[in-house]
Amino acid sequence: MNSLRSTLAAIWRISSPYFRSEDKWAGCGLLLAVVLIELGTVVIDVLLNQWRNRFYNALQERNWDTFTYELIYFSVVVTVFIAIAVYQLYLNQWLQIRWRKWMTEHYLADWLNDAVHYRMQLQGDAADNPDQRITDDVKLFVDRTLGIGLGLLNSVVTLVSFVVILWGLSEAAPLHLFGSALPIPGYLVWFALIYSIIGTWLTHVVGWPLVGLDFRQQQYEADFRFNLVRVRENAEQIALLKGEPAERGRLLGRFGNVVDNWLGIMNRTKKITAFTASYSQASVIVPYVLVAPAYFAGKTQLGGMMQAASAFGSVQGALSFFVTAYRSLAEWQAVINRLEGFTRAVDAARRTSFTGDHISVAASKSGSVGLDDVLVSLPDARPLLSAEAFHIRPGERVLVSGPSGAGKSTLFRAVAGIWPFGRGTIAVPAGARLMTLPQRPYFPVDSLHAALAYPSAPDAFPRPRLQEVLIDVGLPELTARLDEEAHWNRMLSLGEQQRLGIARALLEKPDYLFLDEATASLDEPSEAALYRLLQEKLPQTTVISIGHRATLEAFHTRKVSLGKADGHFTLRGNAEETASA
Predict the structure, then answer these.
(1) Which residues pair with 364 in a beta bridge?
(2) pTM, whole model, 2 decimals?
(3) Cα(61)–Cα(58) distance, rounded to whole angstroms?
(4) pLDDT, tens digit, 9 for 90 and up, residues 21-49
(5) Helix, strand, or coil (residue 83)
């Protein structure tokens, strides 16, 4: 019961926000229409059940007029059923895509908000493969929730409707054993109930491991797909290192998990299918076995026996909903667990910035970037770098140097507000626009126009301006390719990508530009030309660079070297002044 309550609570947490959202009227309207149509199908089942009695009695009595009338009646009812079945499917699919669209937008907004996606990775990515959870799991949740929910509603309404019919038929065709009638009120109802309870219990005993198997299957499938994408993204490095055999072995190992788990699903599905198929086939003949003695004793007509068999099947089917839907229920439970895990991981990553010791970013009162008593730590709380009374004044050009692993890039992430691990407050001027260029810039798979303008909208900059900055950074050959769509991180060399990163900075004109070895792949003359370009085009921008080349000192007014003390590196305000370029 605790597990059931927990699952129902999870379903409510996942599904209810949509029906309270801005799309609630359309969603609720479609859901109501689908539910009403589902109830309509039950009404038609009841009408057809009653029709069976009249139709088969007409056959037994050789009544031609009644026979033809019942055929016309059946045709009309079935025509109505076909019409509402078509619209039920259409409206159900319409509701599915609206609901899925809203959930996808909701999960993407949470995942891609305030660097949550980045912090989830830093915390070990407890919710593995978020791409799979936002695509496959959301789709399956909507599909299974509607399918199982409507199926359960149908079963409940069918049970209520046919129990009354079956109880009356139990009196019309009393139980006969050894030629004697046994007065057991509603015996057909009680037998259907006992039969269904036993079947449900045995189904759960046989099939409960499917929940865990389905959960792991989705995980293994997503891991395998993710690693295939990784190979495609890093094809050049793999080819240069002759790493194809290693990658093939690693991928086959991942796929081996898929196969092994699938074999487990096959074995468990074989067992549950053998039971449910036997159970379903037995349920077809059971009502005839129960009612046949009364029929042969002349206590009921053929129509009554056929109606009783139909009503028994409806009641037994409604009571056996758990048996017939167990495979879907197991998959649904796995999907619910994965979406709940994703939500918890997102919430945990978001709370990292606001609970306990953490690095916060606040508005500066002095107009400069200030780090006073700031300690930058690793996610496991080990200290990495500290800063005491370190300030960067507007218009300065600061060069930060130090050994690899000292935490220079992590410091930039903390100033950008995406690294919360540590303690202290980083002051940033209110309204200041910060931009960080890493060593390997990111470009979306889109037109060069959109990739260059990113993260701004593609139409944020006029075409002549884009062509101008491409020429400025030494990429005139790309001016004719602005409308070309490509995977630019693969199409261009790292040096060309870094030039495009500088072009992006020229477009955005940030107040503070952090260059994290953003020109390290260029030769020294090209690097110097880009730094002179930044001085010329962005004279008001404060530039903070991480670099190891001595030639960079000429383009900065201040140099900061990291020193190690107390087991971690320290950044101090009394930095060495260098000559202005």
Answers:
(1) 429
(2) 0.72
(3) 5
(4) 999 999 999 999 999 999 999 899 888 88
(5) helix
